[in-house]
């Protein structure tokens, strides 16, 4: 009689066991969820639409990527029926019907909801051993409009990879249900091809959006601050560093497509990526062509330079677009892992604003800050020799008047020769070496070569064969080196002494010489010197004549410089370049242009270490420049205009734009009575223009005045102090003012010019040592 109760107990126990035996998991992507429930030999999969998009079709596949993965795709037909289409694809292309799938899927009408705002489609397959499985999902918004299993599908709108754990206990009451709260999203670990995509994105973003803009910005400003180094730094950043990074990024991108068994160049992102890479290579080739294939006679930048700049900005702009499409479209479409975090977009747009600012600076550089080309400071590394070698001993003592010493102390007659102090190179080499030694023994740390008036023009004027010109000019440097080595050997000291290549102005080659008047014949100036009439040295409003004069003076100075620079032994013996007694602003500009040209070539051929520190020293016979401010012979320019021509861009005077600025500015061949006023103006200019502490070179005449026509010296009124006392006091006052108002001068080089001999330098050396 108790059998019915026993049967009931057994039945309830079986039902309970069946309920407990259900295992499964539910995971969600951004538009749909997948529920997998294992019930013995059968596994049920239910695909839920979250209602965010209109349902066209839903599908899933047993694997981590589309290629080779068995897929089940379902859609609702117009009559309410559901098509189950089992497909596969060899790559990331539209999957085709699989006539022999590994597991046949059977549609489950009881668990399917076709009329709900959030439809769900269900099917079952035989259970296998794959209980912790990665599955891909796809959600399409366009219905195939056909019940045929092989109907064409439009590309999915959402795609992803989920991780289902089918070993978890599952309540039978939850089958076919997805709670609106507590939805989990167990995103699968990154696949190998997805890791490659991330690496591709990092390398290409760093290469195109960090190194390329940085290299462009460096080129824009380094050509101002490091005119002889900028190209090397530019190509290292743009090609040597960015190039490998970009190439690795491209290889990783291609590799990710191959790893995913995808199709190359099947979307805009991939096509633009290759196009931008090709443009980058073209840009590098164009830059190399511009740098190595030059028209040496060009007056301004050629068109290809502007094309290079515009193409560079275009490549960077396309790269910005490419990065955006990569993270915003390509990543979610290709990986199906959904949009990247918002922080990525914030970072991109922030960086894009910075890149646009860089582009604006490149196209429209500011004009009123010292880091631009308006106030151009030469931050070229030739400063370092001044600063490192000399700063610890500033003021550094320069020698005195070499030519007048040769005459006054050593009895040479050189005043009437066009070669002046260069003449002993030919007929009195021992005397020249002795003069150098006298200054070194007096305490000079820098001796000047006897090349002040030495040029092809003056050698011709002296009646010597022009074929000997280069040898004579270089021999002058060699003799200064002999004196230097002799002094060091005699003294057995380790102290350094330096050789400055003395380079007078074009006016020093004329007869009568024109250092103190600046009256140059055409094309170097407006009018030939007239000893009996009015003389003019200003072009006034004639900018064309001014430019032609600059070009002519540039050719003169470059030709002379090249004689020394083209001989390695001579060039290596020189420590500094001293452009001296320059009377005209246009000649200052021409000298800067010549040095820029020469240093660009030296930098390319030999390297940075072969460049020399240099200064431009101007003459102020009556406290002002000899240059007239007006064409009709008006008042003369002051030192301000000479400083502007030395340290600023002067667009009215040169078409070249970029010019080196001298690491030092000097005053020479000027009476001591004007020095304090002039040096104060130099300090004020340095401070006002925020220059990076150029050196100040001071070497005034002794207390005599030179007449250019008669080649005679006349004594000035008796001074209250000796020359050495005046110059020593000036050095002390400059240092005291620097301490009081802040440093503007990097250091001081101080010595003498005409009519200052070894005794003057010796006394000055004693005074300066006492004042240290």
From TrEMBL:
Subcellular location(s) per record: Membrane
Location of the Hcy-binding domain: 384-768
A Gene Ontology molecular function term of the record: S-adenosylmethionine-homocysteine S-methyltransferase activity
Chain ranges of the Cytochrome b561 domain: 150-365
Entry-linked CDD domains: CDH_like_cytochrome, Cyt_b561_FRRS1_like
Pfam families linked to this entry: CDH-cyt, Cytochrom_B561, S-methyl_trans
Entry superkingdom: Eukaryota
Residues of the signal peptide: 1-19
InterPro entries reported for this sequence: Cellobiose_DH-like_cyt (IPR015920), Cyt_b561/ferric_Rdtase_TM (IPR006593), DOMON_domain (IPR005018), HCY_dom (IPR003726), HCY_dom_sf (IPR036589), Hcy_S-methyltransferase (IPR051486)
UniProt keyword list: Electron transport, Membrane, Metal-binding, Methyltransferase, Signal, Transferase, Transmembrane, Transmembrane helix, Transport, Zinc
Transmembrane segments: 197-219, 231-252, 272-293, 305-324, 344-364
Binding-site residues for Zn(2+), renumbered to this chain: 669, 753-754
Stretches with biased composition (Polar residues): 97-118
A biological-process GO annotation: S-methylmethionine cycle
Gene Ontology cellular component list: membrane
Predominant location category: membrane
Cofactor(s) essential for the protein: Zn(2+)
Region (Disordered): 93-125
PANTHER family: HOMOCYSTEINE S-METHYLTRANSFERASE-LIKE ISOFORM 1 (PTHR46015:SF1), ZGC:172121 (PTHR46015)
Name of the protein in question: Hcy-binding domain-containing protein
């Amino acid at each position: 009689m108790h059998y019915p109760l026993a049967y009931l107990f057994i039945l309830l126990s079986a039902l309970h066991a069946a309920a407990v035996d259900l295992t499964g998991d539910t995971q969600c992507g951004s538009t749909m969820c997948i529920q997998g429930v294992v019930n013995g030999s059968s596994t049920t999969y239910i695909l839920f639409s979250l209602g965010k998009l209109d349902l066209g079709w839903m599908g899933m596949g047993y694997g981590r990527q589309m290629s080779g993965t068995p897929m089940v795709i379902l859609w609702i037909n117009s009559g309410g029926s559901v098509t189950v289409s089992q497909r596969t694809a060899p790559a990331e292309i539209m999957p085709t019907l699989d006539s022999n799938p590994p597991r046949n899927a059977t549609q489950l009408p009881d668990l399917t909801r076709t009329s709900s705002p959030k439809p769900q489609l269900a099917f079952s397959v035989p259970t296998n051993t794959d209980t912790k499985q990665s599955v891909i999902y796809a959600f399409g918004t366009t219905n195939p409009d056909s019940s045929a299993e092989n109907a064409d599908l439009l590309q999915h709108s959402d795609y992803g990879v989920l991780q289902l754990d089918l070993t978890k206990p599952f309540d039978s009451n939850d089958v076919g249900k997805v709670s609106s709260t507590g939805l989990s999203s167990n995103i699968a670990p990154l696949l190998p091809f997805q890791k490659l995509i991330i690496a591709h994105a990092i390398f290409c973003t760093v290469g195109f959006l960090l190194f390329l803009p940085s290299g462009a910005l460096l080129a824009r400003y380094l050509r101002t601050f490091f005119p002889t180094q900028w190209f090397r730094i530019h190509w290292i950043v743009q090609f040597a560093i960015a190039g490998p990074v970009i190439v690795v990024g491209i290889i990783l991108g291609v590799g990710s497509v191959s790893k995913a068994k995808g199709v190359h160049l099947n979307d805009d992102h991939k096509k633009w990526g290759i196009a931008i890479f090709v443009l980058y290579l073209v840009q590098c080739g164009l830059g190399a062509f511009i740098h190595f294939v030059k028209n040496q006679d060009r007056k301004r930048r050629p068109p290809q330079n502007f094309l290079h700049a515009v193409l560079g900005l275009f490549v960077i702009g396309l790269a910005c677009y490419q990065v955006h499409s990569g993270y915003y479209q390509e990543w979610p479409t290709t990986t199906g892992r959904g949009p990247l975090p918002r922080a990525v977009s914030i970072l991109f747009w922030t960086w894009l604003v910075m890149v646009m600012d860089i582009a604006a600076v490149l196209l429209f550089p500011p004009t009123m800050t010292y880091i631009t080309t308006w106030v151009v400071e030469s931050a070229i590394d030739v400063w370092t020799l001044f600063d490192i070698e000399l700063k610890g001993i500033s003021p550094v003592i320069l020698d005195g008047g070499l030519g007048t010493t040769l005459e006054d102390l050593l009895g040479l007659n050189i005043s009437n020769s066009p070669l002046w102090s260069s003449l002993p190179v030919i007929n009195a080499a021992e005397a020249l070496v002795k003069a150098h030694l006298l200054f070194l023994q007096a305490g000079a740390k820098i001796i000047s070569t006897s090349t002040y008036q030495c040029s092809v023009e003056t050698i011709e004027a002296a009646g010597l064969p022009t074929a000997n010109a280069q040898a004579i000019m270089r021999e002058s440097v060699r003799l200064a080196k002999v004196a230097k080595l002799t002094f060091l050997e005699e003294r057995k000291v380790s102290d350094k002494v330096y050789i400055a290549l003395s380079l007078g102005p074009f006016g020093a080659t004329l007869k009568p010489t024109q250092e103190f008047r600046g009256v140059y014949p055409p094309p170097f100036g407006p009018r030939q010197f007239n000893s009996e009439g009015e003389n003019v040295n200003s072009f006034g409003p004639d900018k064309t004549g001014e430019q032609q004069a600059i070009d002519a003076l540039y050719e003169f100075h470059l030709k002379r410089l090249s004689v020394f620079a083209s001989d390695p032994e001579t060039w290596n013996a020189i420590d500094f370049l001293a452009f001296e007694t320059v009377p005209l602003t246009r000649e200052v500009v021409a000298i800067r242009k010549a040095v820029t040209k020469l240093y660009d070539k030296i930098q390319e051929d030999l390297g940075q270490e072969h460049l020399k520190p240099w200064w431009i020293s101007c003459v102020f016979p009556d406290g002002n420049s000899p240059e007239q401010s007006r064409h009709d012979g008006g008042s003369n320019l002051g030192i301000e205009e000479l400083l502007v021509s030395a340290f600023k861009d002067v667009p009215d005077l040169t078409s070249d734009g970029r010019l080196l600025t001298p690491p030092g500015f000097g005053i020479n061949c000027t009476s001591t009575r004007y020095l304090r006023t002039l040096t104060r103006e130099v300090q004020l200019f340095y401070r006002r223009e925020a220059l990076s502490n150029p050196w100040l070179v001071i070497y005034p005449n002794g207390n005599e005045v030179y007449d250019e026509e008669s080649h005679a010296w006349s004594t000035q009124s008796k001074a209250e102090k000796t020359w050495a006392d005046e110059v020593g006091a000036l050095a002390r006052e400059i240092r005291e003012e620097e301490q009081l108002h802040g440093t503007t001068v990097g250091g001081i080089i101080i010595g003498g010019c005409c009519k200052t001999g070894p005794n003057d330098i010796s006394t000055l050396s004693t005074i300066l040592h006492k004042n240290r």
